[in-house]
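Researcher: Please predict.
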Amino acid sequence: QVQLVESGGGLVQAGGSLRLSCTASGTTFGTFSFSNIAWYRQAPEKQRELVATTTRNFNTVNLDSVKGRFTISRDNAKRTAYLQMDSLKPDDTAVYYCNWNNNQWGQGTQVTVSS
């Protein structure tokens, strides 16, 4: 079974940057290359929302409020997907989760942006 581990969260001041990583284990290079990885986030007392997705051929930022500031990418050789977050705002504070093929979830990583 595929397991996902997120890392890279932390506390940052508004305007700062963080890069989140989502590393998959229990999968081969070939399988990972064809997988769909998505980043979601969930702020306190809010619903989980889709932030960005990466497929074999496309990287897409889905959430309008982060377009132009966040970038999703992947390194198949490392079985890892990334979420580069720049110009962070306090509203970006949330637990960020990665998802594998609309199935498996990671444990999440906390991102806190101070004003």
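Model: The mean pLDDT is 97.
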